[in-house]
Amino acid sequence: MADTQARIGFVGVGRMGANMARRLKEGGYLIAAVHDRHTDLSEFLSQELSSEAARSPARVAEVSDIVITVVSDDDAMREIYAEQDPTGLMAHATNRLFINCATLTPALHIDLEQAVERRGGATLEACMASSITQAREGTLYLMCGGKHDVFYRALPLLETLGAKVRYVGPAGEAAKVKALVNMVMNSNTAALAEGLGLGAALGIDLTLLREVFSQTGAASRVLETDGEDMQLRAHDCYFSAAHAAKDSAIALDLAKRVGLSLPLAQATLSQYRRLIETGKGDLDKSAVAELTFLDRTPSRLLT
Question: Which residues of the chain does CATH 1.10.1040.10 include?
Answer without folding.
Answer: 176-301
